[in-house]
Here is the input.
Amino acid sequence: MGDQIPVPVSLQPAFDVADALTRVAGDRELLAELVCIARAESPRLLSEIQHSVESNDADGLERATHRLRGSVGVFGAHSVSKAALELELMARERVLIGAPRKLVELREALDQLDASLATFSEDPSL
Amino acid sequence: VTILIADDDPVSRRLLENTLARLGHKVVSVADGSEALRTILRPDGPHLAILDWDMPGLDGPAVCRAIRERPVPYVYIILLTARDRQEDMVAGLDAEADDFLRKPLNVIELAARLRSGERVLALQENLLQAQDALRHQATHDHLTGLYNRKMILEHLEMELRRVKRTSAPLAIAIADVDHFKRINDTHGHSAGDVVLRRVASLMRSVLRDYEWVGRYGGEEFLVVLPGCDVEAGTRAAERARSQVGSEVLQVGRMRLGVTLSIGVAWTGASGDELETLILDADEALYRAKACGRNRVEAWTVNNSSAPSNA
Here is the structure.
């Protein structure tokens, strides 16, 4: 989990623009478009995750967290990816005791990510 | 190349669409596995597919397995996944995916993997073309382009099986170019070749789509006429005879008239065994030759025992 990057997750940027630009071969316009799509998509995924945690639905939780990871991975969103992966592993193991707490962490990380994505959206040239 | 993208995550889908379009590919994109499978299995479906592992409907490996149940055309499949466990990788390969692409995506890696897919598809295309060419060589006569003896006999056998099932009639005709040896001896073998090619194409032109003609021997052609009784079979043979007989063939600087003698046999008189039909058509052909050539004779029970002498 995050073992390829020595920097602690908490110190990494919510949105790693440099990493994301590498993934899209430097195309800022495309990246801005992806940011838009992701910002529209993540509230729905988050509410799916929340619903799954509340209703103790491990399958639903595994699916939704996996989706979220796929969706934000392109932005090098390390803290969101980490929290989502931990939830996904809990779901896979069918042990959801720690899930509500992890959900809080995920929500915070998503808020931070969204703020960074919003800043980028305002001026993709930065 | 047309490429199918199947991914329920709109971010990855957009990234893939954009990248593939920029690389000059035509893109079809869907958001679930069942739709992906339907699109691939269409007759003109894409031969390259990028399938996300986790999708609603069928997941990527399930789509992969379903595609592999159909051997041709080969579809090159890249599985997309954020999974990094070894057992997932093994499961993907066991589902017969060709390659993996790890999420989060990287467009440079994507482009490289597509190039390798295109190489495999090009190789496959060459193999199929070579196979087609070999199949054509094995079933067609190289001089006339008609079916060869083996193939026309296979067709006849197939049609006779239908006769046995449905008891519909069938006629065959064996046509022989009159005085062909003389043409070869007088004008040379290349003139003979020109004559055979021209006769073949004239015969083909008077037959219907469901009627088959093949080169049966040197200057002999076998025509299979499904659904024909002796009258209809004789009419078809007569069409071929008169078409060839009325044409003056240009062979190099010479103009040659060529005629056909044709023997007809049909299942109503000869039964539905291949050997008997051929034998009877041959006998009728012999009689057409004996009666002065450039004519059609049909085999019937009455005159079978008394071929006239020339």
User: Anything to note?
Assistant: Chain A touches chain B at residues 22-25, 27, 30, 33-34, 37-38, 41, 63, 66-67, 69-74, 76 (CB under 8 Å). DSSP finds five helices and no strands in chain A. Chain A has a mean pLDDT of 88. The first helix of chain A runs from residue 17 to 23.
